[in-house]
Every structure is written in C-alpha cells, then in structure tokens.
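Data deposition worksheet. Section B asks for the primary sequence of the deposited chain exactly as it was used as input, without tags or linkers unless they were present during the calculation. Section C holds the resulting structure in token form. Section D is free text for depositor observations; keep each observation to a single sentence. Incomplete worksheets are returned to the depositor.
Section A, Depositor: J.P.
Section B:
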Amino acid sequence: MTSSPNHPAAARQPLLTDWLPTTRKEMDLRGWEQADVILFSADAYVDHPSFGVAVIGRLLEAEGYRVAIVPQPDWHGDFRDFKKLGRPRLFFTVAPGCMDSMVNKYTANKRLRSEDAYSPDGRHDMRPEYPTIVYTHILKQLFPDVPVVLGGIEGSLRRLTHYDYWQDRLRKSILCDSGADLLIYGMGELPTLELCRLLEEKLLHRDPVRQVSVSGFRQLLRHYPVHQTAVLVRREDIAGGLRDDDVLLHSHEVCLRDKKAYAENFRHIEEESNRLHPQRIVQEVDGLYVVVQPPYPPMTTAQIDRSFDLPYTRQPHPKYRGKRIPAYEMIKFSVTVHRGCFGGCAFCTISAHQGKFIMSRSRESILREVKQITRMPDFKGYLSDLGGPSANMYGMSGRDRSLCERCRRPSCIHPAVCPNLQADHQPLLDIYRAVDALPGIKRSFIGSGVRYDLLLHHYAEERLNQAARDYTRELITRHVSGRLKVAPEHTSDRVLRLMRKPSFKLFHEFKAIFDRINREAGLNQQIIPYFISSHPGCTEEDMAELAALTKDMDFHLEQVQDFTPTPMTVSTETWYSGFHPYTLQPVFSARTPQEKLRQRMFFFWYKPEERGRIMAELRRMGREDLVARLYGAEPRRRSAAPTLPARQQAPARCGRGGKPPRRSF
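Section C:
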C-alpha cells in the first residue's frame, strides 16, 4: 500500500486488504508467507490515528515491513490465537491498549466499569488484567527464541518500580514480571523504526530469509542501545557500563523498605522525562539492572505529519461489522492537532507518556485529515473535536530554546506561566477558521479540555493578550456544542497547589467571561467543571467547602471523580508514600474506602439521600455555617402549619423526580 494521504480507501468502500492482516487468510490474500512484526493488542483493531497499534503498524508498513495484528487474542485454552500467524521474522510486540488495563477495567472504588470502551459492544471479557504480562508469558512459552517488545501506556508507566493501586503494593519493573526483552516507552514511532533498522542493518544484513533470535537481539542492544527504551540486564551487560552521569535510583529493595526513598526516586524520573537533554536512568532490582535510555527529542512537524498522514481507513476492522466500539464512536469524527502537554498536572500521565513539549501538526496535514472525514459516508458535517491533550496549546513553545534546554520544571505554567513561553493562540484560531471554511463542514467543536489559565494570563506582548481574547470569544461563540468542559479540579488553593493547578479565583474569572460572552451573543450554553475528591492533601473540610462554593455558583456537579492512583504520577507517589517527591514533606491522603466515600459524598449535596449524612458530618466537624450555606436555616417546628390553596402555594424547591432544578448559564 502507498503511504499517500490520498489513498483510495478514503474515497471508496474499503477492501479487506486495506486493513493490516489479522488472520492467516488475510496474510494469504497479500501473498505473505511470514510477517516481519506481529502486534498483539488488547484493544479491538481500529485503523485510526488515535489507536496506537494502528499507528505503529502503518508506520512500519510504510517502511516496507510486513506487519500483522492480532487484536484481543483469547488467552484461555490452547492459545490458538497466539499461534495462528506463526513466528515473525523480527519480533513480537505486545501493545496492551490505549489505556492502562486496570484503569480501563475498574473504577477508583475497584468496581467493574459498566463497559470496556475499547472492546466490541463494550464487552468485559475480551482482555485480561495486565495483558502485557499475560500475553508475553504465553508468547515466551510458545516461541521462546523470538524477541518480545513491549509498547503502549501500560508498559510505559510501569517501566520502573511502581505502586499498583489494585494490588496495593509496590511492583518491580514490568520487564521483570513479563519476561519481555525490551520495553518501548512513550509514543513509539521513532524507537520502533530505529529498532527495526538496527536489526536489519546490524544483525540480518538485509537478508529477507534470516530471522532474529533472542540472543542476537539482546547482544545487539548491548552495543547499540535504542533511545526511549528500557532493558533488564546484568551489570556487566549495561551498554557502556555504569557512567558518572547516569541517574542511579534507589533499588527496588530499598523502595520496599523506605517509602521516602521511593518518593525521592520519582522526582528524578519525572525531571528526566521532561528535559530536552535527559540522562540515562538505572535502577537495581533482584541483582539485575533496569536501564532506561533517554527519550527522543520532541518530534518535528514533518515527523508527526507523517504519522497522521498514513493511509488509515479510519474504521474498525470488518470483523466488527454490526458491533459498537465505544471509544471509536467518541473519536470517529475528531482530529488531533498536537501531542504533548506542558501543564504538568500532578495526577496526569500525559507528560510521562507524551512529554511536556508540544509537537504540532502542520495546517496542511490537519486539513487533509478533515477533508478525509468529510468523505466518510455517515459524516453529517459536525467535527466532534479539534484538540489535543489540552485543547489550546497548539504551536506553543519556548521563545529561547537555550533556556528550555536547561529547564527541569515539569510544568511551564505552574506555579506561574513561564515568561519564556510563547503562548500565542493565533495559529490555533487560524486552524479553526480554515477548517470551518472547508466544504462539508457545518460546525467544528472543541471537546478537549481548555486551559483557561493560558487565556487569562497577562502577557508582556499585547498581541498575545489580544489573541487570547479573540480565541476565548471564538471558542465560546462558535465551538461549544452547548457545554464547555473545563477542569478547575478543586476549590481549595492549598489542594490546587499540590495538583499543580491554578487558583480557583481564575475559574470564577473565566466563568464570568463565559457568561458575559453568552449574554452578548444571545446564547444559552453551560460551562461544565471537572472536580476530583480524595486527592493528596484534600480533607473532608476541603470537600465541604467545595460543595458550598460550587452551590453558590449554581452548580449541581456531574463531571466528578474520586482520585485513582495510577503509576508514575506525582499524586500517586505522594498518596502511597505519604511524602511529596519534591519536598519529601509528609502529606495527608484519604486512603481507606470509608475516608474516600466521605469526601466524595460532598459532590452530591443536592441529592436527598445524601443530605442526612452530610449534615451529620458537618456538625461533627463543627461546621454549622456550611450546613446553613448548603441547606439554609432549619424551619421551626409548628403544631399546625397553615395550608395555602393550590394556586397560592410557594414554588417547589425540587423539579420532577425530586431533583433540585438546574439553572442554565
């Protein structure tokens, strides 16, 4: 297949051979005896640039490699799904999915989620827990001499000693538990290509018949380490030996004994993940060493364009015909305009996986993808999202790159916006307007979260201030589908500092602007804030204050979540260890299910079933003032209250179904 963005699959009904092969029959249709690389995925196969396994598969295909995909193999019984395509010429790759399998499967309360968003019809039985480990064990049992390479977010966030919330214990690097030969972390295009080229040039010498063995694979990496990868080796096998400039972490065994040492490790991991010139990281475990090579520099516009311009069909594989894949339905008509996020939120894994430096696509590449969407038979003219990890960071970078090269800050906007940040919203405005001018586009919406602190910051250049004002107005008047999502996350400035989020007063300011622009434009739209309970540093009293403050703003909160500790975030390491990784000072966290539920209930102060518990808890805390703010003064008891005729009765406080009425704003 050609790598042209005008691949005929975009203009006609795709054929079975327009997808990467998933069965022996599909390989035969292409005349393949053997694949070079076989990707095992715990997600359904959707041939779309938002699904990592499709991206890696298409990229290798464009380089001339024969790539096959085995989506959601059955890990029970005789393992026929693992055997059906035979052995690859180069290696197997295990890609456990777009989400960590445990986050995908369970809520913060460790209850089964209502559906698996990346499986046909949302089925729960299509993937195991920890598929990275399960799939690798099976492949090593069946094909012991074939290298296995790990990819995806599950391995990326578990590359070193990490806390596992679902098992409530520290676990070793996933390389130890899986037995894989190599781990690729972060976005995998560049390291995967480098690995394949190394194998061809240094080991196989471009011989299409020879095959890679595990011993040859490991020997090669000893002499030619690949950026953005991790290996588990003996000390004498560390490429170049231990060096003075290596970041040597506390060993896994020390972390088991000393939570403060574990917390201290994370500061080094995060800082090196977000530097332009990072060092190699080494950690001892069981007498061996996990060696994490530095990541690649941020992708150039040409590199990221190439990744998005590959000939995706943008559809699920035909094997899912008639089935619904929830995650695909959400992103079917969306376009990613950039990768990376410099927000550095303490609870977020984006910078650990994608990095903090923004990698933006060209205007031409974005427009090509939008044009492809307009040719889809069921497209009605509405783009669901033109966004990224944070919607309004497109094209932003440091003015003086030499300052960025020395910087260790995990966030460019916390505790304040960096004066070196070129936060110009005009290029993104130009993208919006160019997209909206295309034939077939009726409206384009912004479904990704917006960083309002970037919009409200006062910049030294008036041009940037004007661009932020123009962006804010155009966003609100043209790109909101009735509801705009923003994430203040909390109301307590003390908790927000631990979250690396701006003061809540900025949300007040942004909401005032939102309401004013809606009034001026004659619109009746809502702003939907996201909040988190039980974050490290948050107490029940903080949550009670949150309830009162959001009630004063006429919010009945919907988009809320209990903090879920996920590997490789500042918040998780603080929650588990009890110490903040950067200060090593103790921090309180609500840890028991009972403590977490007592915090969460304050989100729902307006529900009749929560009122009694909340009032009792407020009185226990001595906060009668918040009882009055949430529920008003309790009426005095009277022996006989007068009854008004029906037409003279006061309006009910609750609407239909006993729920408080919602205010539109």
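Section D:
The domain at 8-242+287-292 is CATH 3.40.50.280 (Rossmann fold).
Residues 504-521 form the longest helix (18 residues).
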